[in-house]
Amino acid sequence: MRRRLMLGLAILLVSPSWAEGLPVEVAAKYLLIVAEAVGSTGRVACREMDMAMYLKKQGISVDAKASTAWAFTAAQARDYGAEGKFVICNEKKLLAEGGSLAFEKVSGRITVFVHQANLARSGVKLPDSILNGAVKI
Predict the structure, then answer these.
(1) Domain limits for position 105
(2) Which of 31, 85, 104, 121 lies in disulfide reach of 69, CB 3.0 to 4.6 Å?
């Protein structure tokens, strides 16, 4: 199962065909892969309406008590980070606000960024297969 997750993440990382920014459907795929890899399968904290609706359609529980959270704004990243959650974002700049991991399109490729201090604060251990391909901040 873990191997399939990492293969899915690798495929998503090398696809250059997406428009600028990450559409909700694409961001949700990343979110679900990473949430499952860190043991938060089926539950994600999320306050962003489009993402919450998409997650619910996928059978994922949008749960404020989940240890993994999706942040779309700086305020959400700060709030979730202050709660000690593992915060996943779709913009690298949100890492400075409390995000632990971000996906952003750089030069036509999706790049994974990890804020090491925020990751350590969340208590989550990311698999080496994600860390090895990530840009560490």
Answers:
(1) 2-136
(2) 85
pLDDT in tens, 89-105: 988 899 999 999 998 88
**Tokens linked to 131:** 């860390």
Q: What token pair was written down for 93? A: 């700049």
CATH number of the domain residue 121 falls in: 3.40.50
Which pLDDT tens digit goes with each residue over 26-72?
888 888 888 888 877 778 899 888 888 888 888 888 888 888 899 98
Assign residue 86 a region (left: φ > 0; alpha: ψ between -120 and 50; beta: otherwise): beta
CA 30 centroid distance within chain: 6
Amino acid residing at 112? V
